[in-house]
Amino acid sequence: MIRYSDEEGFIKPKGIKFRDGQDKNIKLPEVAVLVFSRHLFNDVVEKFQCMEVGYISCANLEKNVYILKYKDKEITFAMAGVSGPHISADIEDLNAQGVKKFIIFGNCGVLDSSIEDCSIIIPTKAFRDEGTSYHYVKDTDAIDMNPKYIDEFIDLLKVYGFDYKLGYTWTTDAFYRETKEKINYFKSMGAITVEMEGSVIASVCQRKNLDYFTFYYAGDNLDSTEWEERSLSGLTNIDKKKEVMLLALDFAVKLI
């Protein structure tokens, strides 16, 4: 059982952390792009003007935070934490440092084999098969997603020529427990994807009244007799994934 409380948390987010010589009073750009893939993250840092301004840390991990200059606009850029607890803390810490709009994207599993590898999925509702979201909003089976920006994002998809699909997603926090029984159940409820953060992103941003947009590019296929890895591996189909990265950056520019 998870006990929901409407009170504010006893421990408050203080923002990002800093190394020697970094400005501890810096206010981050209001629009942030968070990407789950370390390969796409490193590619952007290598190719574009990125100023390291601090880092997010937990007990055994540090992730650099950058101010990215893209098409003459400044964007907060960081690697997104995998899993509900991790991404919730990222949003809390970056918001405490000035971020007000989040674009968060990454790979997902598909529950519909007709969805092509690396095509774009826009989630409109998430089934809450995880724990973190229940600490942010009251107990419901599902939560609506992406209340803003869908039309604007689709306009950009058309410019890029990306295939895309809108649908429900299943958010789980135990990927080795994605059983056939659960797959069939959530498919019957209308889910077309499975991932680990969607309902959490929606619940944290809803509670904190933050604007956000989250989307996926299709990876492994669970709509089969045996699991099909497809492009789940980070470097598989990497050129297409790099196009998705540019899509996210161009979308961020539209929201500034």
What does this structure look like?
- This protein has helices at 38-47, 84-96, 150-160, 180-188, 198-208, 238-255, and strands at residues 31-35, 49-58, 61-70, 73-79, 101-110, 120-129, 142-144, 164-172, 191-195, 211-221.
- With 256 residues, it is of the alpha/beta class.
- It has a single domain, classed as Rossmann fold (3-Layer(aba) Sandwich), CATH 3.40.50.1580.
- The chain has a five-stranded mixed barrel with strand order 5-9-8-6-10, surrounded by four helices.
- The protein is globular and about 55 Å long.
- The protein starts with 30 loop residues before the first strand and ends with a helix.
- The mean pLDDT is 97.
CATH class: Alpha Beta
Q: What would you call the quaternary organization?
A: single chain
- Measured between the Cα atoms of the first and last residue, the distance is 41 Å
Instruction: Give a quick account of the main beta sheet: strands, pairing sense, barrel closure.
Output: 5 strands, mixed, barrel
The fraction of residues assigned to DSSP E strands is 25-35%
Question: What is the helix/strand order?
Answer: EHEEEHEEEHEHEHEH
Question: CATH topology, what is it called?
Answer: Rossmann fold
Give the number of helices: 6
Alpha carbon gyration radius: 18 Å
- Order of strands, main sheet, comes to 5-9-8-6-10
CATH architecture: 3-Layer(aba) Sandwich
According to DSSP, the number of beta strands is: 10
Shape: globular
Poorly predicted ranges: none
pLDDT average, as an integer? Answer: 97
CATH-assigned homologous superfamily: Nucleoside phosphorylase domain
Structural class: alpha/beta
How many structural domains can be distinguished in the coordinates?
1
| DSSP helix fraction | 25-40%
